[in-house]
Amino acid sequence: MFKVQPLPKTRAEQVVDAIGRDIVTGRLAPGAPLPGEEALLAQYGVSRTVLREALQVLAAKGMVESRQKRGTHVTLPEKWHQLDPAVLSWHSQLSANAPVLLDLMEVRRIVEPAAAALAASRFSDEDKRRLAAAYDEMAKAAQSGDTEGFIAADLEFHSAILLATHNRFLAPLAHAIRATMLASLHLTNSRAEENLSISLPLHRKVLDAILEENADLARNSMLEHLTDTEARRQRSARNQLPL
Description:
68% of the residues lie in helices and 3% in strands. It is mainly alpha-helical.
């Protein structure tokens, strides 16, 4: 299959990426001023036009704001456009201790059990095919010890459930949280033996409940799976040094 290669980033996009990462990781703290324009020009080796374009992009994402005579400051996280793909991408590279992953788990526990229940009453033939195919790929990857393949199929499985709700607001959520959810899956699916013995059977319970059109069982099975996921995230956090 032909694979589309991403276009190389422009200089402005590279500066956005660098400053955005520094903000998300806390190297540039909320409320703190950015270095002066001359310092930023020297740091990134770009023209004034490119730098100002980059700062405008970050401002549009709610991450910085400029005030007359005060310069440009980092904003509080509450102002960031958290579902912006770039912001999610920066978050996805944080450690297991990162507060954003706690927030993500809260969202998942609120949304996914209810979504599984809806999917059990609304799935189409195409949804059934997509869910079964994702689970089959998970099973193959678990048997072969292919962690990356397991994570990719796991992500597809959860996205397929949200799509199977046929709710116009839940479907975009599957795409919006994809980058950060991928980070979470890397943390919680790092041990091949756990993928095979624990995670895979829990996914099977969710799949069977949906295909049996048992909404209550689908909801409870998803909640059981997410409880296990959070326990494994906590174990990963205990084994990592804080940022």
